[in-house]
């Protein structure tokens, strides 16, 4: 008997749900009509006075059993959803978002395709440019491994003002000379918006470092030139902040942006930073930009470079960045985690044998 009664009542609930559904959608259609009229008249879509009136009406007419505050909360949600419906979804989506562009952003740097699914790129080179000989020795090894992108810092944003700050423009000149000699593309960090214009004469990819991820003037300057940009995730940046930083660059007209996960600061002390490995698939889902993993700065540990690189490739990264120095023990920066040439060769061989890297067949022997 009780079961029959419940069945009856549930039938009534189903009918009411049906009616509510129809009414909410009918209401949404009217809201859309109002939105169109407001648009033609250039009026603001959100009208707080009108919303206050509607909430007051609920308060006047409510006879329970729901509390007025509960009903106002429910209606507020309906108002909010309706307002969102009025806004053009497409216009609201960020330029870097997958909603805006479902296909991957793919571009070419020195014959290397970046961002195509199934193609992965390695960037290797010293933490800092120290001398022509030092960069050339690493470039030779990079070339021998069949890689096309060489890194090297000329402007070093160091935690202490007393640490080596980089060779500046002189460092960029060294990079350019080596790059030309070994037919490699070079990537180097620029820290000052005023240096961007000058830097494009020397380098092929502008790096924006973790400490500058929210240097908005620098992002705007990098967005205004015709050069690919590798943007590092900030030390304490959320994924959303990272995406917004990339939007700064793309919104200025430069859509050749690579996102680079380089670890974030957590309470964990076992590694220099905590490699947020799942940020890779999240960034791939949320944006159409290529995503790289910097294994050197994320781990700060030589013994973790290989497993971290494998993890990056396995989880879908488009590329890996790793630091290499002819003699890390005497490197002017990051001496604890740079690979020497032998270790680098072993590292690349292990990567190529791992089955995670697609380019085992494309290594070209050095011509130099
Ligand atoms: C770098 O790549 O040289 C560097 C300083 O890294 P980050 O900005 O990620 O600390
Ligand atoms: Mn470094």
From TrEMBL:
It holds the Pfam family DAHP_synth_1. Residues 1-90 form the Chorismate mutase domain. It is an enzyme of class 2 (transferase). Residues 6-33 form a coiled coil. GO terms for biological process: aromatic amino acid family biosynthetic process; chorismate metabolic process. Keywords: Coiled coil, Transferase. One of its GO terms (molecular function) is 3-deoxy-7-phosphoheptulonate synthase activity. The keyword Protease does not apply. Its EC number is 2.5.1.54. NCBIfam families: CM_A, DAHP_synth_Bsub, PRK08673.1, PRK12595.1. This is 3-deoxy-7-phosphoheptulonate synthase. It comes from Exobacillus caeni. The gene is aroF.
């Amino acid at each position: 008997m009780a079961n029959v009664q419940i069945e009856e009542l549930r039938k009534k609930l189903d009918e009411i749900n049906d009616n509510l559904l129809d009414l909410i959608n009918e209401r949404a259609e009217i809201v859309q009509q109002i939105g169109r009229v407001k648009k033609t008249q250039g009026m603001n879509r959100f009208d707080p006075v009108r919303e206050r009136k509607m909430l007051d009406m609920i308060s006047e007419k409510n006879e329970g059993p729901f509390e007025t505050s509960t009903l106002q909360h429910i209606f507020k949600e309906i108002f909010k959803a309706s307002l969102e419906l009025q806004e053009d979804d497409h216009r609201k989506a960020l330029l870097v978002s997958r909603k805006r562009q479902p296909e991957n952003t793919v571009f070419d740097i020195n014959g290397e395709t970046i961002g195509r699914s199934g193609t992965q790129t390695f960037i290797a080179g010293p933490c800092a440019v120290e001398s022509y000989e030092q960069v050339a020795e690493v470039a030779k090894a990079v070339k021998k491994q069949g890689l096309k992108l060489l890194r090297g810092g000329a402007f070093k944003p160091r935690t202490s003002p007393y640490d080596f700050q980089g060779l500046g423009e002189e460092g960029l000149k060294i990079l350019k000379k080596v790059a030309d000699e070994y037919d490699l593309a070079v990537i180097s960090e620029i820290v000052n918006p005023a240096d961007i214009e000058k830097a494009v004469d020397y380098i092929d990819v502008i790096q924006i470092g973790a400490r500058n991820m929210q240097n908005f003037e620098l992002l705007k300057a990098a967005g205004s030139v015709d050069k690919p940009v590798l943007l590092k995730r900030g030390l304490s940046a959320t994924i959303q902040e990272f995406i917004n930083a990339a939007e700064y660059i793309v919104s200025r007209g430069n859509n050749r942006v690579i996102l680079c996960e380089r670890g974030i600061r957590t309470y964990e002390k076992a590694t220099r930073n905590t490699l947020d490995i799942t940020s890779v698939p999240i960034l791939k889902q949320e944006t159409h930009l290529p995503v790289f993993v910097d294994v050197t700065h994320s781990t700060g540990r030589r013994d973790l470079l290989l497993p971290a690189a494998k993890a990056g490739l396995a989880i879908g990264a488009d590329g890996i960045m790793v630091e290499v120095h002819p003699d890390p023990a005497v490197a002017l920066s990051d001496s604890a985690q740079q690979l020497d040439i032998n270790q680098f060769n072993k590292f690349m061989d292990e990567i190529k044998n791992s089955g995670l890297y697609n380019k085992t067949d494309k290594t070209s022997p050095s011509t130099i």
